[in-house]
């Protein structure tokens, strides 16, 4: 169980970095993409960050319980 949470947690953190990079790239380029998707990318990043934080807390909790 602990390993599964760890892998999903890493995936969530990767998703945060990916969405952040896309958002920064769109902001830097400007234009239609930024005008259309800037707010959506910010909301998606916040959602992924919340999921990642919850998974990190769950992982730490499971590690403290000895994985039982």
Please provide a written account of the structure.
By secondary structure, the chain is mostly helical. It folds into 2 domains: 1-30; 33-67. The chain has 2 helices and no strands. Helix 1 (2-29) runs antiparallel to helix 2 (31-64). The longest helix is centred in the last third of the chain and has 34 residues, at 31-64. The chain is elongated, with a radius of gyration of 15 Å. The model has no long low-confidence stretch (mean pLDDT 90).
Main structural class? mainly alpha
Strand percent estimate: under 5%
Give the tally of β-strands.
Answer: 0
Q: How does the major sheet shape up?
A: none
Helix percentage range: over 70%
Order of helices and strands: HH
Count of DSSP-assigned helices: 2
List the uncertain runs: none
Q: In one word, what is the shape? A: elongated
Mean pLDDT metric: 90
Computed Rg:
15 Å
Beginning-to-end CA distance, first to last residue: 9 Å
How many domain modules? 2
Protein name: HIG1 domain-containing protein
Domain HIG1: 1-68
Organism: Falsiruegeria litorea R37
Transmembrane segments: 6-30, 42-62
Quick recap:
The chain has 68 residues and is an all-alpha fold.
Please supply descriptive tags for the structure shown above.
68 residues, mainly alpha, 2 domains, Hypoxia_induced_domain, membrane
């Amino acid at each position: 169980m602990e390993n599964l949470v760890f892998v999903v947690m890493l995936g969530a953190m990767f998703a945060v970095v990916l969405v952040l990079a896309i958002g920064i790239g769109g902001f830097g380029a400007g234009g239609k993409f930024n005008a259309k998707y800037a707010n959506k990318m910010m909301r998606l990043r916040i959602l992924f960050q919340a999921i990642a934080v919850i998974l990190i807390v769950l992982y730490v909790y499971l590690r403290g319980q000895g994985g039982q």
